[in-house]
Every structure is written in C-alpha cells, then in structure tokens.
C-alpha cells in the first residue's frame, strides 16, 4: 500500500512539473507529457528500486532478505537499459538533425544541396522542405497554435514563421525526409493551411541568390581594390 502511494504521488508531482514547463514554453501539455514519458517511467523505476530495497531490508530472515534486496535492483537495471537506449537514439537523432541542417544525407553524410531526388552515394531520398504559404482564412494566433501542435515548434519559432509568412507570403517551415514531410503537409492541409514541399536544389534553381547563400555556411571574402 505504501509503495503504491509513493508511486502515485511521484507521478502526480511529475505531471504537475510537466504542466508548469508546458505553460512556460507555450506548448501543449499532452505533447509535453508524451515527450517526457520515457524519462518519467525511468524515474519511477528508480524510485521503485529504493522503496523495494527499503522494505526488503526489514525482513527478519537473512537469506530471504538478501534475495529480496537483489530482486529490488531489477527496476533500476531495466531503467538503466532504457536510458542507454534513449541516449543512443538521442545521439543518432542529433547527428541526423545536424546533417539535415547542413544539407547532407542523414545516412552517409553526402552533400545533397545539388541533388533533386536521391543521394548519389547511398540512394536515400533527398529530404523535402515544407513551405508554409499565406492565406486569408486564419489569423496569426490560429497559425501559431497550429504550428505548435502539428510540427511541434516552440512558441518563439512558430511566431517567427508566422511573421515571415505575413510579410513575405511564405516561409520555410521544416526540413524532413519525404514520408515525414508528406505527413506534416497532410496534417496541415487538413487544418486548412496552404503548404508545399521542395528541395534545396529546387530552391537554388528558382532563387539563384538564395542558392548562392545556401551553398556555403560562411560569406565569401571581398577583395579590396
């Protein structure tokens, strides 16, 4: 009974902390809960280990007490394995995110800024850039709320994209692999927004000046006369 009370109180405290963080970041609470759910489960498993070890230490039989103490470390071992897997997955996603931002293939690191369909090195499909277009059906506040929900942008990033759409007529929303980009477009279109997809190579062809900027991360030095 005491063990169940501790678990319930711990889960309630973590839910309250997640609600507080969601309100400060301006993100939906349920989306924040789903994002931090694995870490919450791991923390509860560590709590369960300490509680089980404390109750096992109260056993009067020495042999059974040792067996129970050893068994109490099973939740901690499971949590450690989950944390290791999450760390490896986070490291892989960071590499993919960095390669996407630099216009490289997420699989092999080949430069895809001049490729239209597939990676010449490994054959992986070129990531698509989701472009958000201006419309007369939604207010800025509605667009900000939608962008926080579907692509999962932060409040500041959603406001920045919405401002660019209002001033320039369109804005680069996000860059993802083709299946993920198509799913984002489908959800945004279902909510009434106008979106399209393109690649870095297509953007460079339609806008030579923008393409020249995308080809290099640093400005070219100018020669003084």
Plain-language structure description:
There is one protein chain. The protein is mainly alpha-helical and 225 residues long. α1 packs antiparallel against α2 and α2 runs antiparallel to α4 (74-101). It has nine helices and three strands, in the order ααααβααβαβαα. Mean pLDDT is 75; it is low at 209-225. It has a three-stranded antiparallel β-sheet with strand order 2-1-3. The longest helix is centred in the N-terminal third of the chain and has 28 residues, at 29-56. Helix content is 63%, strand content 8%. The chain is elongated and about 80 Å long. The chain has helices at residues 2-25, 29-56, 62-71, 74-101, 140-149, 155-168, 178-190, 200-206, 208-214; strands at 128-133, 170-176, 194-198.
Lay out the secondary structure.
Elements: H1 2-25, H2 29-56, H3 62-71, H4 74-101, E1 128-133, H5 140-149, H6 155-168, E2 170-176, H7 178-190, E3 194-198, H8 200-206, H9 208-214
Antiparallel strand pairs: 1-2, 1-3
The number of helical segments is: 9
Measured distance between first and last alpha carbons: 83 Å
For the report, how would you describe the main beta sheet? 3 strands, antiparallel
Strand order of the largest sheet: 2-1-3
The coarse overall form would be: elongated
pLDDT < 50 runs, ≥5 residues: 209-225
Tell me how many strands there are.
Answer: 3
Structure classification = mainly alpha
Q: Which series of helices and strands comes N to C?
A: HHHHEHHEHEHH
As a percent range, the share of helical residues equals 55-70%
Strand content: 5-15%
- Rg over CA atoms, rounded to whole Å, is 25 Å
Give the overall average pLDDT. 75
């Amino acid at each position: 009974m005491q063990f169940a009370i501790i678990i319930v109180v711990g889960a309630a405290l973590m839910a309250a902390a997640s609600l507080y963080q969601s309100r400060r970041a301006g993100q939906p609470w349920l989306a924040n809960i789903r994002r931090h759910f694995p870490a919450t489960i791991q923390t509860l498993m560590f709590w369960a280990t300490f509680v089980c070890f404390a109750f096992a230490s109260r056993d009067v039989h020495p042999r059974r007490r040792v067996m129970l103490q050893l068994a109490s470390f099973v939740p901690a071992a499971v949590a450690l394995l989950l944390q290791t897997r999450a760390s490896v997955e986070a490291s892989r996603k960071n590499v993919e995110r960095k390669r996407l931002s630099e216009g490289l293939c997420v699989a092999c690191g080949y430069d895809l800024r001049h490729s239209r369909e597939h990676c010449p090195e490994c054959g992986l499909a070129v990531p698509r850039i989701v472009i958000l277009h201006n419309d007369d059906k939604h207010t800025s506040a509605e667009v900000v709320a939608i962008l926080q929900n579907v692509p999962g942008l932060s409040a500041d990033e959603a406001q920045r994209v919405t401002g660019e759409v209002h001033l320039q007529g369109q804005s680069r929303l996000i860059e993802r692999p083709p299946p993920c980009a198509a799913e984002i477009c489908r959800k945004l279109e279902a909510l009434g927004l106008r979106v399209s997809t393109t690649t870095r190579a297509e953007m460079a062809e339609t806008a030579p000046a923008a393409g020249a900027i995308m080809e290099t991360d640093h400005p070219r030095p100018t020669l003084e006369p």
